[in-house]
Specification:
alpha/beta; eight-stranded mixed sheet; 14 helices; globular; disordered N terminus; Rossmann fold
């Protein structure tokens, strides 16, 4: 699974009252005569011990100089007022033009920044209509001269990254005009997607960079629904039973729709546009989602793809290349289409997932291209370049003020203790202006068990697997423990009854193998809308809401892949909060349709509905597992993997996956918790509660 480790660097970035969270213009610090330093502009990892060499003077530098909103606290107040039920301004969203008139940086400030950059030899690339930044291209030598720094090459997080050796400075005449500079350091290259196949045996398939992803299939046997197949494990009893469910093959769209009660409402997201962003662009996206839809009883998708103006076309570091992200883009589209099959889909591509990622987000918001935005990317932890914190958070404020709901995956590394030694949450999900979506493990079962189905039925649109008749049996928080099962000569996995006679390779629950992110932010104070509903905390609590994310009970997706016998469409099971966020974004599109108009930033509405009681949310609670017939007290499944990721010919591996392992600090409990937030959407009751 993809993870990213880095040193924790926390800083409070708040503006006054608990209601307001504004990445305001940096207060100039003392610097060389005639210049002002930008606080937080030197990454913590750029230290003398990690310095390896000077950055080559002729290397290209692509940067953005960010300007703050005018009257930033008023922008935040407006965003909150239009998003809060009971406010006289509730759902009276500003148009992008009105927002620009009130809060955009002045044209004179933009001209001053442009003149400064041109005088230093930079080429101006783009300035968006909201004047949020000026992007430019130059060389290392020009950047060093312009910003009064020396740029070095540093060893960080297993790679080499460029960064300034001291704080970035600007001429004193630009103090208060320049908020931050992004792109001098390459820390943004550490942004990662939050999807995982949960492989966990050291043989997870690598990507074929620039080509269709390397082929991957869920190992068989697998279950057509939760508990459809079980395996006897007489020498490996776990959690009170020696019989375990075999992991599902991947839930179909019909099964996911049954899980969240979407078949209880007539609305399907029609009339709504859901945008999603990512790195690069899969050349087979439309044909893959179209085929997926035809196989799984969904209408043909309506997909538009574009690249934001000014996005850079040439890479500056080798961390991220096209093929790595084709699956992520396809997953997002198919997940949104699963929960909002009537909605239009808009994919806005970045040439990579580094500093131009925020340009894609800004373009969607500033041009109001969609009323809902799904983001399945983020940093591990809160050690984030200050320019990125400021740029994204202020864009999220504009999104809220103009009626765009933003849904962000909470991360796939649980409480992050394994990376940082202490619990922490991830940025972007920690922003109080987005809906942070955590992860659950889910049991989906039929309302009436069909008989005589084989694996081939999973791609038959007439099959019960692709039609209504599914419901939730239980959900718990997604925090996986992996324990390998030692194979033996007497194992019987070729057909029912299934039996594994080996022992577990290590004590339960084994090693941590991924889980939804959550916890308490050190970067942002707790917003009042959250504190009023769940009680006071030392910082913003993550997540807000959750949805299916466990790769062991994951979503079935389809994509063109490169197998040993050719390149073609096939399907596999996947998870991560990259599944949860677009599923929830799609559900929000349905809510917009039910409401008859955009609901915008949902968090104040989510917490108001939660505080009101009722059944809008399914309360994800580990205690639901006590007394169930298959497993007690902790849910776990037996997972089969193909060692070569393609077929049984390369061998099989077996592992027991504990679905909410006890060694994490994140656990689902009654009420709000930092594993699953307020819970998961609960069918028609959710739409009734969220649209009041």
């Amino acid at each position: 699974m993809r993870t990213s480790t880095r040193t924790l660097r926390a800083a409070a970035v708040t503006a006054g009252a608990a209601l307001l969270f504004v990445a305001a213009a940096a207060t100039p610090a003392a610097a060389a005569s005639g210049r002002s330093a930008l606080p937080g502009s030197q990454p913590a990892w750029a230290n003398a011990k990690a310095l390896r060499s000077a950055a080559p003077a002729t290397d290209t530098v692509d940067l953005r100089v960010y300007l703050p909103w005018q009257n930033a606290s008023a922008a935040a107040q407006t965003a909150l007022a239009v998003s809060t039920p009971g406010s006289s301004s509730y759902r009276k969203f500003l148009t992008p033009q009105a927002f620009r008139q009130q809060f955009a940086p002045s044209q004179s400030s933009v001209v001053a920044v442009q003149q400064f950059l041109r005088s230093a030899g930079f080429t101006i690339v783009d300035t968006p209509s909201n004047n949020r930044y000026v992007s430019a291209e130059g060389t290392v030598a020009q950047a060093q001269n312009a910003f009064g720094v020396t740029l070095g090459e540093y060893s960080a997080y297993g790679t080499t990254l460029r960064a300034p050796e001291s704080a970035v400075t600007v001429p004193a005449s630009l103090a208060g005009i320049v908020e931050s500079v992004a792109g001098l350091d390459q820390g943004a290259s550490l942004i990662q997607p939050t999807s995982t196949d949960g492989y966990g045996n050291g043989n997870s398939p690598k990507q074929n960079h620039g080509a269709p992803s390397v082929g991957f299939r869920a190992g068989q046997p697998c279950s057509l629904w939760y508990g459809e197949k079980t395996v006897a494990m007489p020498n490996a009893p776990a959690y009170g039973t020696s019989t375990k469910p075999i992991a599902p093959c991947g839930y179909t769209p019909a099964q996911v729709r049954g899980l969240y009660g979407l078949d209880q409402v007539a609305a399907n997201g029609s009339g709504q546009t859901v945008a999603f962003v990512g790195a690069n662009a899969s050349p087979t996206l439309v044909q893959d989602v179209t085929k997926y839809s035809s196989l799984h009883n969904l209408p043909a998708p309506k997909i538009t793809q574009l690249v934001a103006p000014g996005v850079y076309k040439h890479p500056d570091t080798p961390q991220q290349v096209p093929g790595d992200y084709y699956g992520e883009e396809t997953l997002d589209a198919e997940a949104i289409h699963t929960t909002a099959p009537g909605a239009d889909l808009l994919y806005v591509a970045s040439a990579n997932a580094r500093q131009d990622f925020d340009a894609s987000v800004n373009h969607i918001v500033d041009k109001h291209l969609a009323s809902i935005l799904s983001i399945s990317y983020g940093f591990a932890g809160e050690a984030v370049p200050q320019g990125f914190v400021n740029s994204l958070n202020n864009t999220f404020i504009e999104a809220a003020a103009t009626g765009v709901g933003v849904f962000v995956s909470s991360g796939d590394s649980g409480d992050e203790v394994g990376s940082f030694g202490t619990p922490t949450v991830d940025f972007y999900a920690d922003s109080p202006w987005v809906t942070a979506v955590g992860g659950s493990s889910a049991s989906v079962v039929p309302t009436a068990a069909p008989s005589g189905l084989s694996y081939s039925a999973i791609d038959d649109p007439a099959s019960p697997l692709n039609n209504t008749g599914w419901k939730r049996s239980f959900e718990v928080g997604w925090e996986t423990g992996l324990d390998a099962v030692n194979p033996t000569a007497t194992d019987h996995m070729s057909g029912a009854p299934y039996e594994l006679d080996g022992t577990l390779a290590s004590p339960l629950p084994g090693t941590f193998n991924g889980g939804g992110g959550g916890g308490v932010s050190r970067l942002f104070a707790q917003p009042a809308y959250q504190a009023a509903a769940v009680g006071a905390a030392s910082g913003r609590l993550v997540p807000d809401i959750s949805a299916l994310a466990d790769p062991n009970t994951g979503l079935l997706v389809g994509q063109t892949q490169t197998f040993s016998n050719g390149t073609y469409y096939d399907e596999y099971r996947i998870g991560g909060t990259s599944v949860a966020a677009p599923l929830t974004a799609g559900i929000a599109a349905v809510a917009n349709q039910v409401a008859g108009a955009p609901l915008g930033f949902l968090n104040p509405r989510i917490y108001a509905a939660y505080a009101a009681g009722g059944s809008a949310f399914y309360d994800v609670d580990q205690a639901d597992m006590f007394g169930t017939t298959v497993q007690s007290p902790l849910p776990s499944v037996l997972r089969v993997n193909y060692v070569d990721s393609e077929s049984a010919a390369g061998g099989l591996s077996y592992s027991l996956r504990t679905q909410e392992e006890p060694n994490q600090t994140l656990h689902s409990t009654k009420g709000y918790d930092t594993a699953t937030g307020v819970g998961t959407p609960n069918g028609a009751a959710f739409f009734a509660g969220i649209t009041k």
